[in-house]
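Predict the 3D structure for this chain.
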Amino acid sequence: MRPCRPLFLVAGLLAGCALGPDYRRPATPSAEAYPEAGKGGAAIRDEWWKSFGDPVLDELVGRALAANADLALAAARIREAQAVLGETEGAGLPQFDASAASQRIKISQGGFNPNLALSGRTRTNQRLALGTSFELDFWGRLSRAEEGARARLLAAREARLVVELGVGAAVVRAYALLRAADVQVAAAEEIAAVRVAEGDWLARRARLGAASPAEVAAAEVATAEAVARRADHRRVRAAAEHLLGQLTARPALVVVPRAESAWRAPEAVAPGLPSDLLSRRPDVVAAEQALVAANARIGFVQATRLPAFSLTGSLGTESRDLEALFGPGNTAGSIGLGATVPVLDFGRGAARVEGAVAQHEQAAAAYEQAVLNAFREVRDALVDVRETSAAVTSAARMAAAAEESLRIARARAAAGQDGPDDLLRARRLNAEARAAVAGVRAARITAQVDLIRALGGARPDEPAKR
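Done. Predicted structure below.
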């Protein structure tokens, strides 16, 4: 076995040498802060949807996360990536195989065999052996393959976070739309009732000559518009309810209507620094891991163009008789170092390297695009949060004023100081204000959800915030 020692020495010196570029995060456009970011704000909490303070919403999100088919698909992809990584890691370790054989051979008398007279035509042979073989990772082909498989596993995990965040956001958006529609349907019914009463009032006045036919016709048009608007709100609510049923895997889901909004004003979210987005947002992290895998593939493909070395060995025992299989002097073994050297492939290897480099360039471009898209979405969401917050404040003042106006109109009507038309107008304005407040609150919640999603939600590798 001494002649093999130089081969093992060379193997030890060359093993662990990895071809190809080592990964370095590419420079991407960034900024020191978001221009639209305000002061203060809280970190995104774990189970962020609970910050809205609605138990029905909490139950719906929980059901959606447990039953969503896209999440099940993403989880299966993670398991597949884990299996591929396990297989890749095992490729760099020896594989041991046990073999056993029992042979009985009858040799032809007509063949040339000088030992035929001594050993006879019939021979038996019993063999039991343990063999191993594995590739020596001279050029880092296996280590690069493992690096790429690990990156793909991380990308699959981040992809699941993307789906999870998207499912939660979709449920909250649909629920916000449904609850806004609840208030708007109730307000539209009030408006339609007022419009009918206004039409009757004008019709009575027209019969007395105090109102023109044009005023009566305009009242009928307004009534028809109010009825159509009520139908639109009902249709929107039904569509939102059906979407929630799909998201929660409950096709017959029915959400009990609620005439008044029970939403808690969402707490402002701190956007952090733009540089934090690279490690927080799951789609950006997944894009970077795809770039890591593409980078590792360059070294893997380069290594396939160089000689491959494998170490083989076996140890066992062999005997003519089964009872003497483990007798002294019957042991047998072998050890060897093999090499496979590419000689001529007519440019296929070089083409594979060029293809790997091109894939790396594509992944780098996709990563930069993901980063820029993430920055844009955060800035858009910050503007939406700012403007919808201002709209909510204004709408709340409008609703308070409309409520006070209705109170005064009722008091004056009870005292006989105003006619029925003034009270009807106050009722209609109050209902319209309630519908407007519900709409802007839903827009504020949607903006909050968009900001949370743009920031990447709550990271599972960060301390839980409750």
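Confidence is low (pLDDT under 50) at residues 1-15.
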